# Entry
Amino acid sequence: MSEAQIARAAPEGGSRRLILDHAARLLRNGGYYQTTLREIAEAVGIRKASLYYHFASKEEIVEAVVNDGVRFVHQGVVAALVATEGAPPRQRLEAAIRGHLAALHGHGDYTTASIKVFNFGAAPAPASVRAVRRAYEEVWSELIAELQQAGTLPAGRSPDVLRNFLLGALNGSTDWYRPERFDIDALAREFAALLSPIS
# Structure
C-alpha cells in the first residue's frame, strides 16, 4: 500500500479533518459544481496536488463530507434515545427531534452540505452514502414503530411517510433557523406536538 493510500485509509484527523472542514464550508455555500479542488486547497493553505495525499478525488472529499454530516446527526439522535431509554414515547420523540436539531445546527457546515449536495451533481450517490443514510433512517423507522405501538402516533399512518415528512421538516430548518431567534428545546417541543397530538 502506498503512502498516499495509507493516509487516505487512516483515521480522520489532523490535515485530513482540516481539508474536510474547509470543504464542508465551501460545499455548504457553493454547492457541488461551484466547489473546486483548487478552492479547497487554497482554503486549507496547501497546493492542490497535496490534496491527493489524503483523498483520491473531489468526489471522495464530497463523499466524506456528506457521510460525516449524516453521522453527526445519527450520533446525536442515538445518544438522545439512549438517554431516554424507558421514558414515555412522547418524551423519546421530543428527545430524538432535539438531538437531530442540535446536531444539524451544531455541525452546520457538514449537515447543510450533506443535504445540499446529496445527489453528487448528475451522478448517483455512492454506495457508502446510501448505506449511511439508510442506517440513520432505520433509527427513525424503529422509533416510529415504537410510537405507533404505544398509540403516540396513529397506527394507520405510513411509517415511511411519517419518517420522510419529519426528516424533511427538520432538515428544512437549515433554511430558516437562526440561533438568536429560535431555541432548540422549544422547537423540539413544537415539532413533537405537531406530530403527536395524542398525548
The chain has one domain: 3-195. The radius of gyration is 19 Å. The chain has a mean pLDDT of 88. The domain at 3-195 is CATH 1.10.357.10 (Tetracycline Repressor; domain 2).
